[in-house]
Amino acid sequence: MTSIQERLYPELPCFGCGQANPKGLRLRSYRGEGGLVTAAFTPWPEHDNGLGYLNGGVIGTVLDCHSAAAVMAEADERGWRPLGGAALAYVTAGLDVRYLRPAPLTEEVELRAAVVEADEARMTAEVSLWWDGKPRAEAVALWKRWRPRS
């Protein structure tokens, strides 16, 4: 199955979700029923927070980039393509992260995202990182239409 990233922006070099970045995380997200977008992510030993858990900055990165997949899939479905000169239709305008409990460094975690508000100017997605049946971090991501300026 082709991921949202591979289908919609395969040449993007983004560290978190860019398939064209061989040193990046290369998230692969998939749209399921009801618009829920899911992904699996296995941390690397280098993602240690110094205490044996997943680093908060890495958590923020995967939440941001996974929410991107939900937003870009929504935009694609609605026909809101990137505007002239833009690599993507939307860019992150804000990410409000809440860390709930430690996330493992050595085991696969699940990412979940859904667009909860959408119009052509902006979208809001709720995104979370889960492990062992519990949310470990949650975020609300605000995305705005990318309007390149010269």
- Uncertain parts: none
Proportion of residues in helical segments: 10-25%
Structural class: alpha+beta
User: What best-fitting shape do the alpha-carbon axes yield?
Assistant: globular
The order of strands across the largest sheet is 1-2-4-5-6-3
Q: Termini distance?
A: 38 Å
The number of distinct β-strands equals 6
**Over the alpha carbons, how many angstroms does the gyration radius reach?**
15 Å
Mean pLDDT: 97
Oligomer: single chain
Strand content: 25-35%
Helix segment tally: 2
The biggest sheet, with number of strands, parallel, antiparallel or mixed sense and barrel status, is: 6 strands, antiparallel
Order of helices and strands: HEEHEEEE
Brief account:
The chain is of the alpha+beta class and 150 residues long. It is built from two helices and six strands.
Explain how this protein is built.
- The protein has helices spanning 4-8, 56-78; strands spanning 29-31, 37-41, 90-99, 109-119, 122-131, 134-145.
- Strands 1-2-4-5-6-3 form a 6-stranded antiparallel β-sheet, with helices on one face.
- The mean pLDDT is 97.
- The protein starts with a helix and ends in a 5-residue tail after the last strand.
- It is 19% helix and 34% strand.
- It has 2 helices and 6 strands.
- The protein is α+β, with helices and mostly antiparallel strands.
- A hairpin with a 5-residue loop joins strand 1 and strand 2.
